[in-house]
């Protein structure tokens, strides 16, 4: 009899526990609150299921854009940046009036920033990150997030400038001066705001000197001295200028 009683008690406890674990979902509000609670607890797999269910069962509810945004946030937190960018872009396309659009645009750029590889790899994601950060800055010029946006843009553009300078240096070592000049001009023309402009000027001066392009060299030295009066190559540039003048 005692064994039967204990067994019956165990069954009651099991049923009670099972019942408390089940969430009561009667509306889009219930589903959103459950999904957001799971997200805040960093239970991303569960949260993702609930947000997907919210989109499926209540596509026209007031939480449709919330669900789309949080799916992007979940992917971002999980390090799935391609999927995060997809969700953020989908939000902006489907819900252009959503309050999340501004953050979604910034986070799209940030997703591609996370995907941006070292300078010696293909730079598709770097260009995409720059594209979205520039769009953010243009769309929200007075937003406080532009402090971070400008830092990311500088870093990404520096990477592209260095990539071209590095390639120019390789061609210079191989004495393929025409090819080197092409990449140096990319640095000077497309990335004049980066940290590698002075280095590009200096290498271009060396190439002009070695090729005997003295007229062009004279103009290039004038540009360098005007732009970098305290430059790290200033003494060397003056030495080249004096040597040229003594001929």
Q: Work out the radius of gyration.
A: 30 Å
Helix content: over 70%
CA distance, first residue to last residue: 117 Å
The number of strands is 0
Q: Could you spell the SSE succession in H and E letters?
A: HHHHHHHHHHHH
- Rough shape? elongated
* Overall residue-averaged pLDDT value: 90
Which range does the strand content fall in?
under 5%
Uncertain spans, ≥5 residues at pLDDT below 50?
1-21
Q: What about the largest sheet?
A: none
Overall structural class, as computed from helix and strand content, comes to mainly alpha
Keywords:
247 residues; mainly alpha; disordered N terminus
Give a structural overview.
This protein is mainly alpha-helical and 247 residues long. It contains twelve helices and no strands. It is elongated. The relative contact order is 0.05. Residues 1-21 have low confidence and may be disordered.
Write the topology of this structure.
Layout: H1 2-21, H2 28-40, H3 44-57, H4 64-77, H5 81-94, H6 101-115, H7 124-139, H8 146-173, H9 177-190, H10 197-211, H11 214-227, H12 234-245
Could you give a quick summary of the protein structure above?
By secondary structure, the protein is mostly helical. It is 77% helix and 0% strand.
């Amino acid at each position: 009899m005692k064994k039967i009683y204990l067994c019956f008690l165990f069954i009651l406890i099991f049923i009670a526990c099972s019942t408390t674990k089940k969430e009561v979902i009667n509306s889009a509000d219930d589903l959103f609150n459950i999904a957001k609670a799971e997200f805040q607890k960093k239970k991303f797999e569960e949260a993702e299921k609930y947000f997907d269910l919210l989109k499926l069962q209540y596509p026209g509810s007031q939480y449709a854009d919330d669900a789309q945004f949080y799916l992007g946030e979940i992917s971002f937190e999980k390090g799935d940046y391609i999927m995060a960018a997809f969700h953020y872009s989908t939000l902006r396309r489907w819900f252009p009036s959503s309050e999340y659009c501004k953050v979604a645009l910034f986070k799209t750029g940030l997703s591609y920033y996370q995907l941006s590889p070292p300078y010696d790899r293909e730079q598709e994601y770097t260009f995409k990150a720059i594209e979205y950060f520039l769009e953010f800055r243009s769309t929200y010029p007075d937003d406080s997030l532009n402090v971070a946006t400008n830092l990311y843009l500088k870093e990404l553009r520096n990477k592209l400038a260095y990539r071209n300078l590095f390639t120019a240096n390789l061609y210079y070592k191989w004495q393929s001066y025409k090819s080197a000049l092409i990449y140096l001009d990319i640095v000077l023309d497309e990335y004049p705001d980066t940290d590698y402009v002075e280095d590009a000027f200096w290498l271009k001066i060396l190439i002009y000197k070695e090729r005997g392009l003295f007229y062009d060299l004279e103009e290039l030295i004038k540009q360098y001295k005007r732009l970098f009066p305290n430059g790290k190559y200033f003494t060397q540039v003056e030495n080249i200028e004096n040597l040229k003048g003594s001929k």
